[in-house]
Amino acid sequence: MSRRPDIVLLVLDTQRRDRLSCYGYARPTSPHLDALAAESTMFRRAFATAQWTIPSHASLFTGLYPSAHATRQSSAALPVSIPTLAERLAAGGYMTAAFCNNPLVGVVNNGLRRGFESFLNYSGLLTSRPNQAGARPGPIGRYRQWFKGRLAEALNQVQNSFARSEAMLEFAFTPLMVPLWQTALSFKGNTPRSLNDAARLLIERRGVARDQPVFAFINVMGVHTPYHPARRALERFAPDVLRDREAARYLRRFNGDVFGWLAPFSAAGERYHHVLSDVYDAEVATQDAHVGAFIDRLRRSGALDHTFLLICADHGDHLGEKGLVGHTVSAYNELVHVPLLVRDPRGDFARGATLDHTVSLRRVFHTLLSAAGLATSGERDLSLAQSPAADPDGGTVFVEAEPLQNVLGIMLRRRPDLARARRFDQPRRAVVSGAYKLIQTGADDVELYDLDNDPHELTNLVALLPERVEELQERISMVTHAADMPPPSLRPAADTDDPIVQRRLKELGYLE
């Protein structure tokens, strides 16, 4: 490879790690990603920095935890003093282009678009089309581009206000507005078109200078609510939706209930959890086919041979586990334990390797700068290419799950009893170190799990391992001091006299 590699950051928005067959899921949901994993380095213990889109993407783009980049709410904007990944790569000679399907990244004015020469948005009231780089439109074409740009700016301001205002967000939840904005907003964007446009740039290189490398950021929203998978995938993974009227009726109600997506408590009941689970699997399979076509196109053209490809999720989704749906508040593994694959044509990441040490997605920033040859020595030390023995994080990572304030206000008015009983109004901080994960909610609620033996976080070990709790609380204080969170205090939250808890503890080997 004579020139620096092209770099592709592909974010599978809301993709759960445990629903990909390359990570051990029993259903064959991801054959194309499975094939890619066989020629990539696969990280088995990667954790997002936050449980939802904006803070997680801000960490991907800055290498910082949310308490450091301070972009934790839909009303926040990334400080201009913090350089972004795209800005660094553009300054280093890369052509920077984004192909984004998430309106929280591509529409809301929060600073995440900084540094991109071309930012193509596939969601929103007006879907932008790719820059015609290299083309020379005539006077009418230039006028159309100017008019569309001004219209897009005006509509983006409207969408900005909906994202940032609690009153307007609640108005958007009304029965009159939901069908209108779901249709007009194109909330999930257009995964096939965005991947096709990204492939065209990487292969045809229109508007790219000779020997200039390309950085392409792609966000796809196929597995995000609302659920509309391909019929073939429904037939394979969720046939009840096609055969059972009640299941189909439930899915229609769920897809039309925006508050139901955002409120973390499950209103489905056990009877319908399987519907959400199966339809989610169908969406995973649908999206996997699109991603597979994208990778195959790069491979056939030869572009994949000089492309550094990193695929991850920004977070996952609850599908009824622990009585939760969605991803507005939780630090459990369903949301923060994410997939991470790196395919490196230069060989710093071994083909077919599987790594089990714990890493944070914030290090995507350092990894991509290192691949571009633009990292400082300190940034190279944080590249994911470092061996576990040289890991400056020492296998300790943090998660910060802060309630979305505009959604919380609506939640407290509609379901105040449940919201406060489940402590949805409290921030959550988690630390993962070695086999153990500690979750602190507010100042006084603590959970401790042994992820090696209890990956689904079913048995709280706080009362049994106080020394481990104290050790991890000391570590978590390193990030909570900047997040306006009270200092931690220990409150044993597990009743070890409960017969069910005793049985689980015996199964895990903590009781004789």
Briefly summarize what is shown:
It is built from 21 helices and 15 strands. By secondary structure, it is α/β, with parallel strands linked by helices. It has one domain: Alkaline Phosphatase, subunit A (3-Layer(aba) Sandwich), CATH 3.40.720.
Tell me the number of helical segments per DSSP (H or I, 4 or more residues long). 21
Alpha-beta content class: alpha/beta
First-to-last CA distance:
59 Å
Q: How would a crystallographer describe the biggest sheet?
A: 9 strands, mixed
From the spread of the alpha carbons, the general shape counts as globular
As for the CATH topology, it is: Alkaline Phosphatase, subunit A
Q: State the helicity in percent bands.
A: 40-55%
- CATH homologous superfamily assignment: Alkaline Phosphatase, subunit A
Summarize the structure in words.
The protein is of the alpha/beta class and 512 residues long. It has one domain: Alkaline Phosphatase, subunit A (3-Layer(aba) Sandwich). 40% of the residues lie in helices and 15% in strands. Strand 7 and strand 8 form a beta hairpin. The protein is globular and about 65 Å long.
Short descriptors:
four-stranded antiparallel sheet; alpha/beta
